[in-house]
Amino acid sequence: MTVLPEFGQIVVLNGVPRSGKSSIAAAIQASFDGVWMNLGVDVFAREVTPPRYRPGIGLRPGGERPDLEEVVPVFYAALYESIVVTGRALPA
Length: 92
Description:
Elements: H1 21-31, H2 41-48, H3 72-89
């Protein structure tokens, strides 16, 4: 029988801009037991993505920054991979 390691939980908050996702993430971090990290699109865009590559609201292709069409999918891939790695590293 194979025993799988226990990984940290990943909670996905989805919603339109300004719907309260970041506020919910902050409330979880402040009140839930354990380590809860906010690895959201807003945090990634604001803190990780170099300013000249920020497309505006969140990380999304199209519209105001057509010059970023090719790199936005790469940014999302990096974000998703960082979430997976963090989930594996944190205790359950």
